[in-house]
Design a protein that fits this description.
Shape: elongated
CATH topology: Nucleotidyltransferase, domain 5
Largest sheet: 2 strands, parallel
Mean pLDDT: 83
Oligomer: single chain
CATH class: Alpha Beta
Radius of gyration: 17 Å
Length: 146
């Protein structure tokens, strides 16, 4: 964590989502989460509330999702990756969110790139694949600059 303000990690991670919802509920905002107990709430509780239509959870997660989508659109337009694996702090992403993600990206990414782009949710099997793909990509970029 860099400690910066506005970094993707500080606005779009599950940790940031939990922090925001707990802060806002502690400051008096209403949420269906309060039907079970007082803050702090776990990530699983926040995600469950989101899926059940809690307005505050939906507002916060939708905003975080929008930040993530906008950031990734730049990378997608620059590098034409062909495959985007969503994982780690976004393990809560389900088919509904992936479809919303694809629809949103189609509005802001180049059409020819989006036709070829496959967006999937990470599974435990892909955990190592993600790390190796990232390492290979970074190494390839590094080789070109040396």
């Amino acid at each position: 964590h860099c400690g910066g303000i506005g970094c993707l990690e500080t606005v779009s991670s599950i940790k940031a989502i939990r922090k925001e919802i707990n802060k806002r509920i502690s400051n008096g905002e209403k949420s269906n989460l309060l039907h079970s107990h007082q803050p702090p709430f776990t990530a699983d509780e926040v995600i469950k509330a989101y899926r059940e239509g809690d307005p505050l959870s939906r507002e916060i997660i939708d905003r975080a999702f929008s930040y993530l989508m906008n950031a990734l659109s730049s990378i997608i337009n620059l590098y034409d990756p062909g495959l985007l694996i969503l994982g780690d702090m976004h393990d809560f992403i389900d088919d509904e969110l992936i479809n919303r993600f694809k629809t949103g990206l189609k509005k802001i990414c180049f059409p020819n790139i989006m036709e070829k782009l496959d967006i999937v949710k990470k599974t435990d099997k892909e955990s190592n694949l993600q790390m190796h793909a990232t390492a290979a990509f970074v190494f390839d970029i590094w080789k070109k600059t040396v």
